[in-house]
Every structure is written in structure tokens, then in C-alpha cells.
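call fold(seq) -> C-alpha cells
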Amino acid sequence: MPSSKNYVLSITIIGILFFIFGFITWLNGTLIPFLKLACDLHSDAQALLVTFAFYMAYFFLAIPSSFILNKTGYKKGMALGLLVMAVGAVIFVPAASGRSFGLFLTGLFVQGMGLSLLQTASNPYVSVIGPIESAAQRISIVGICNKVAGALSPIILGAIVLKGASEVEAKLASATDASQRDQLLQELSNRVIAPYIIMAIVLAVIALMTWFSALPEIESGGEDASEDSLSKGKNSIFQFPHLLLGALCLFLYVGAEVMAGDVIGQYGRSMGMSLDETKSFTSYTLVSMVAGYIIGIVAIPKYIKQDIALRICAVLGVALTTVAFFAHGYISILFIALLGLANSLMWPAIFPLAIEGLGKFTKLGAAFLIMGIAGGAIIPQIYGQMIKALPVQTAFFVCTASCYLYILFYAIKGHKVGKKVTV
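ret:
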């Protein structure tokens, strides 16, 4: 285990990295309405391909990321992930110039590739750098960095690319000449170029800083490789049912998180709220998540264990989703934003519970869990298809409540399956 000085340094650097990928991840809530308008898309289901392209990258790249990390180590793997994210940001420039929705999706997929590598490295790193029983506390600390960035990013990008959005919509609706309409759309699309050029430069610089930083490496031998490790005598990742059930748990958790964070704006639009109002809704969800992370830092593991925290959050998620279903207008939006509080301690609790005892399989196990982030791609797409036949509130309730019910099962029983001792 690293020395006290290196421990603080490690948490600080990882906190900065979590801030970066939190900032980029939660831009999707702004990009969904922006690209629907700028690329002249015709349905919410089509606009939700933004989350599909971004989060599906985790599914395809998580396993390759684990093999890359075995070659590069954690530190260089994180730096490489940042460089890939920079490439994804650069792709936004020609995408905006040509108003190509397909190219925008390509840029998002590439950014997701980089984040897959970054998360496959950073999440187990912060889990195993200290005692496993306090891993949720450490993940909560870096999670605050992630969610503060997530709260800021839609406000910052929204102020740039969706400034006067209602006015732009009115001009487009009244435009009778096709060339005039195209010009308005191109001017809107061009707004995204400068922010993403700046983003690419910042990511490249931080990648170099990470590569040459003093971030200590943790070898496989330090990854819970003790004599009583669950990995003793096992030769396959599929011999850890608590990990596989945990991957499904993370899949459903991320789906619920994206519904509460990225889809909330489209949810508000379906209730007749203006784009100028809904562009900041993602930030409200992220603020409530920050509050939850602060509670986690104080309470875990001193007052409550990780699995108990997960149970409480799952029950809260079901309760808030139910109230949002029966409420209307801004009250319904409020309770969806409060889902951030329920979601806050889920990742910090699920991840360490799922990788506990993996020993030499920790990197590969982390990759399986990172694959679960694809829930952010699939669950919103299921919702997008459901709203074609069901009321928006009904579809939202069915998608999210079912996720929280499975998470409750994992918190009570799923994380214990296959373990030799009761956790």
C-alpha cells in the first residue's frame, strides 16, 4: 500500500481525473436538445442516440482496456485514455461544420472509448489504494469532483450553445426560405466548435501531466491478493458470481442515473417547458448527487456499511420515482432531480462490493463492471421506444423503478452470492 504522502497525492490526481470525465460525461444532457435542434432531428428517440453512442463505447472497449492496462499500468493507461478523449473532442469540429449527426455520434463514441480506458483504470485504483471497507468513502470523495463537474458542465455549455434557444426555435419555425433556415442551423451548430477545441487542448495537456506525474503504480500483487482472497484456486473471471451480478447491477444503475440526469430535460420538454428552462435540469440532478456523496463520506464505513447504504439508496430510488410518476409539472421534475440523491452512493457501493476478493482478476473484473456502463446506452433507448406507445411519465416510471428494484436485490443478497464468508 502507498505511503501516507503518496496516498494523498494519488487521491488528489484521481480527483482531478474524475472531475474531467464528470465534466465530459454530463455534457450529454445539453447535447441531446442541442443536436436535436442543430441537426434538425425529428424525434426524441433519435436524439437519445447521443447517450447510445457515448455509453456503448464502454461495452466494446472495457475488456480491451483491461489488456491495455496490463501492458501500460494504471498511470500510463489513464494518460492514454485522456488522449483518446481529446481526439473525440477534435472530431466535433468537422461534425459541426458539416452539421453531421453521424460524425457527432462518432466523436461521442471516441470520447466514450477514452473514458472506458480511464474509468477501467481509475475506479479499481481508488478502490484498492486503501482498505476495501472504506472504498465507498474514497469513491465518494472523488465522486464529488465528478458530480461538481457534472453540475457545472451543462450550465457552461448550455450558456454557450443554447443561448437564446427559444428565440432560435421561433426563427426556425417562421423561416420560409430553405437557405435562411440552413444558415440559422449552421450558425447554431458552429457554436460548439470553440468549446470542443478548448476541451481537446486541455485534455491533451492533462494527459501529458498525468504521464509524467508521480502517481504511484499498484501492481497486481497488491490487489487483494491475500491468502483468504476469493481468487485463490480460481482460473476464470466467470467463477465470481457476485461480480457478474454486480456488472448487471451497474448496468441498471447507470441506466437509471442517465435517465435522471440526461433524459430529465426531454422529460420536461414533453410537459411543455421551454428549452431555455430545461437546459439546466441536468445540473439540478447533479447537485443532489453531490449532497449524497457528502453524506457517504461522513457515514461510510463509520456509521453504515456499503451494502446497507446501497439498500437505503435503492429504496429511496423506488420511492422518489413513484412520487414523480404521480406528480405533475415542476413537482415531478423536482423528484426526478432528487433521484441524484438516491443514485449518489450506488456506484461507490456497488463497485467495491463487486470487485472484492478478485485478487489477480481485479483489472479484468473492473473491465466487466465498466462494460455495465452500457446501461446508459440501452435503458434510454428502451425509454425512447416506450414513449411512442405510452405516456412519458409511465415509461419513465417503468424504466427506472425496475432498475432500482434489482439494485435492492443486489444490495440484500446479490453481492454475497458465491462468497465464502458473509459480507
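The two ends are 23 Å apart (CA to CA).
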